[in-house]
């Protein structure tokens, strides 16, 4: 009986900690009226170094190139083995098919945006929005001209002239007071579209909001390329899909690109960590992004600071997890996290594989003279199927932020892709196409893409004489 009471007590403590967000009542690290002596316009990370040396040292740990199983910070060469070999097919016709690397630490944001092959002479200012500390000032000075400004010719040179830094101090803190702040207007607009009052958020809300400025799904508004979050219908994958099918289309946005294999108008998911966290068990319990990814730690063996080493909580479990999960063995907890991620990655890769098949089945519908009506019907299912698996793939937690939600999303993806294949199969059989031969040709293409040693050339093997490219009509 005593043993049951003991465990019940521990469970009650854990629940109380979760509901309170574990750290929402902690005092700020600087008093409200403290002044740093810095200019309100300061954007150089180094300017904060002497004032906050312990936080700055933890920030510099973001230089470390260290992996967990499903989260990387390693810059790959173009010949390194690709963990996602089907993406050159699934993103064919889009820049992501050329280069789509592991996520690296924030400290590399400016370096990576300059080097990534997806940035071209046609790229716009919006591509810099979550990379540089100069962006708030660029928006203030240029207004709407910032969003659609030419990245290479106008925006990047302007940011360099300001002495910008990669994602850092001034993106989240007022340089004069160090109060948390929101510096990207897209976030405020999107939250207000849900009816959220953004005039006086709590400290605990801000510990989510400063991350939610950038770790989100977004698209570029067709009228001016402004970074826009599709949130008016809600944070879930189905909510955002509804937004894209209604609000976005009414504004003139239909797709990110036309798929080169199936001719389908495709939506590219970005990185909806904020949305999946907010709809997942930790977010629903008012645990914040910062509680897990920026835990309190003892620096120099004495002073309590917020870590600015933005990394996987699996690397800081004593600080990130044990604060709430005091009744759990941390090794067992880590094993549970990895089990959840293993299951999600298996389901994700299965959904991706089905989506690949659907693209090629529709390609064969096009080349076999199937009616436009039936092709369009199948393409609608492909579009939906791809959005749902990509929503999970683009989110950097391998399903952990919202395990049940991610599994439900992948289930919908597979169902939609199978519907496209079913429609295609029925029509292709009428045309006398051998489904057995079609399946063999699909497997040949997959192997050709996987076996190409140069990641930048993988996309070139996704189409061939049997599956010709489907360029959008001019």
Indicate the mean pLDDT.
89
Helix and strand pattern: HHHHHHHHHHEEHEEHHHEEHHHHH
Poorly predicted regions: 1-32, 76-80
β-sheet strand percentage: under 5%
Main sheet makeup: 2 strands, antiparallel
**Tally of contiguous helical segments:** 19
Rg estimate, integer Å: 24 Å
Topology:
Elements: H1 2-19, H2 53-60, H3 87-90, H4 109-115, H5 135-142, H6 145-148, H7 151-161, H8 169-172, H9 185-193, H10 203-212, E1 219-220, E2 227-228, H11 237-251, E3 257-258, E4 265-266, H12 273-279, H13 281-284, H14 289-293, E5 296-299, E6 303-306, H15 317-320, H16 330-367, H17 372-393, H18 403-430, H19 435-451
Helix pairs in contact: 16-17, 16-18, 17-18
Describe the overall structure.
By secondary structure, the protein is mainly alpha-helical. It has 19 helices and six strands. The chain has helices at 2-19, 53-60, 87-90, 109-115, 135-142, 145-148, 151-161, 169-172, 185-193, 203-212, 237-251, 273-279, 281-284, 289-293, 317-320, 330-367, 372-393, 403-430, 435-451; strands spanning 219-220, 227-228, 257-258, 265-266, 296-299, 303-306. The protein has a two-stranded antiparallel sheet with strand order 1-2. Helix 16 runs parallel beside helix 18 (403-430). The longest helix has 38 residues, at 330-367. The N and C termini lie far apart (76 Å). The model is unreliable at 1-32 and 76-80 (pLDDT under 50).
């Amino acid at each position: 009986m005593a043993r049951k009471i003991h465990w019940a007590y521990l469970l009650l403590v854990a629940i109380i900690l979760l509901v309170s967000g574990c750290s929402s009542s902690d005092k700020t690290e600087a008093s409200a009226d403290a002044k740093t002596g810095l200019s309100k316009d300061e954007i150089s990370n180094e300017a904060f170094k002497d004032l906050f040396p312990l936080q700055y040292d933890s920030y510099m740990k973001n230089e470390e190139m260290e992996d967990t199983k499903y989260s990387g910070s390693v810059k790959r060469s173009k010949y390194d083995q690709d963990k996602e070999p089907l993406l050159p097919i699934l993103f064919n016709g889009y820049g992501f098919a050329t280069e789509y690397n592991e996520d690296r630490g924030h400290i590399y944001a400016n370096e990576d945006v300059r080097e990534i092959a997806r940035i071209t002479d046609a790229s716009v200012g919006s591509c810099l929005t979550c990379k540089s500390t100069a962006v708030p000032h660029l928006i203030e000075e240029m207004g709407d001209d910032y969003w659609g400004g030419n990245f290479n010719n106008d925006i990047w040179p302007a940011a360099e002239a300001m002495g910008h830094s990669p994602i850092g101090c001034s993106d989240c803190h007022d340089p004069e007071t160090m109060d948390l702040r929101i510096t990207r207007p897209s976030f405020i607009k999107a939250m207000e579209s849900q009816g959220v009052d953004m005039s006086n958020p709590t400290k605990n809300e801000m510990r989510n909001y400063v991350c939610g400025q950038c770790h989100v799904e977004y698209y570029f508004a067709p009228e001016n390329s402004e970074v826009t979050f599709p949130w008016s219908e809600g944070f879930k994958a189905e909510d955002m899909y509804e937004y894209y099918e209604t609000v976005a289309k009414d504004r003139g946005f239909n797709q990110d690109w036309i798929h080169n294999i199936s001719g389908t108008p495709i939506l590219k998911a970005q990185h909806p960590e904020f949305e999946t966290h907010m709809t997942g068990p930790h977010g629903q319990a008012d645990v914040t992004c910062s509680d897990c990814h920026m835990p309190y730690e003892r620096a120099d063996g004495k002073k309590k600071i917020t870590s600015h080493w933005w990394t996987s909580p699996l690397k800081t479990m004593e600080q990130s997890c044990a604060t709430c999960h005091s009744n759990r063995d941390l090794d067992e907890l880590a094993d549970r996290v990895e089990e959840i991620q293993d299951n999600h990655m298996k389901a994700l890769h299965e959904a991706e594989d089905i989506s690949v098949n659907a693209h090629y089945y529709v390609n064969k519908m096009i080349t076999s003279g199937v009616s436009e009506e039936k092709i369009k019907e199948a393409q609608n299912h492909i579009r939906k199927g791809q959005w749902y698996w990509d929503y999970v793939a683009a989110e950097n937690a391998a399903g952990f932020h919202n395990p049940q939600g991610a599994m439900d999303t992948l289930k919908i993806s597979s169902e939609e892709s199978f519907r496209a294949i079913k429609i295609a199969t029925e029509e292709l059989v009428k045309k006398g196409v051998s489904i057995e031969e079609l399946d063999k040709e699909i497997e040949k293409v997959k192997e050709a893409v996987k076996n190409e040693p140069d990641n930048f050339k993988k996309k070139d093997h996704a189409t061939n004489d049997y599956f010709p490219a489907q360029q959008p009509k001019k």
